[in-house]
Amino acid sequence: MSHRRISALLAALLVSAVLVLPAHGARIKDIASFKGVRSNQLVGYGLVVGLNGTGDKRGSQFTIQSLYNMLERLGVRVDPSTLKPKNVAAVMVTTNMPVWSKPGSKLDVTVSSLGDADSLLGGILLMTPLKGVNGEVYALAQGSLTLGGFLAEGTAASAQKNTTTVGIIPGGATVERGVPFEFNRMSSVTINMNMADFSTTMQVVNTINRELGGGYATAKDISTVEVAVPAAFQGNLVPLMASLENLDVRPDGRARVVVDEKTGTVVVGQNVRLTKVAVAHGNLQIVITENFNVSQPEPFSQGQTAVTPETELAVREQNNRLILMEGATLRELVDGLNAMGATPRDLISILRTLRAAGALMADLEVI
Length: 367
Hints:
six-stranded antiparallel beta barrel; Alpha-Beta Plaits; alpha+beta; four-stranded antiparallel sheet; flat
């Protein structure tokens, strides 16, 4: 057999092997989260200084009070009425601290103007304590801001790109206290599904038990799976978590059609079906135009000048043929509606009518 024929045969076998490979689903890490492995939100109130006259105005009393309190703590006594905060801005500082953050770790922070400052460009955030929901300080933030825009103003014109009242400080916060969490001491792992579906949850349970070789996973409810830690992974959960989060499952869910009327966007789920139904869609358009003419009498006659209205009426009706749809799939539904020349706005009206007629086997959600 020639080398050319052997190469062609191998290529054909390779294509056949690819065609028969099962399609992969979604990884567990993409459709669920693990209890305890999460971020904690921190927030703080601070001052940004060094602004070139783009800070808060004199009406921002809380900025003046904050500036006065800061100077008071530094041993500087001033009269609050003499403070001009145009180079200072009151801001809120936020960040997310992962549960594995340790003292000394760096976090990115977002700084947002709280008052009426025009721009935070060139500002420096003074030391700001960041607190958790329990009121405890977990990190301290300080540093120069980075903005993704600019603002230039003149007497009669201005130019602005993006938002200039929000900035970030990469690595601007230092963790001072970690969240108590003994990861490797857990005797069980809880998986919280992002979607509430019995079929998908049972797929996760069966897949985990098949991978671990035992009945370690159980479904606690429609969206919660609890996995007992096998003896081989006691005290060393990282290999177990790495194995679990990469398992493939096929997410299932209710058939759904999502409609956004503001933008005319229609998203149809894969499992949407139609019962036997006939659809016809047409538009009735009536145009009324009013024209006003002037009736002028003959010279030296006894008549008077009068305004005579003239109305033009035009009626146009689009007459689309009736289309029969029965058990249509997603592609057949879209092809059928496109064959009718339906626009996104028309699709919204048609889908609502199908739902009202009981022919649309899906949940219709309008956002």
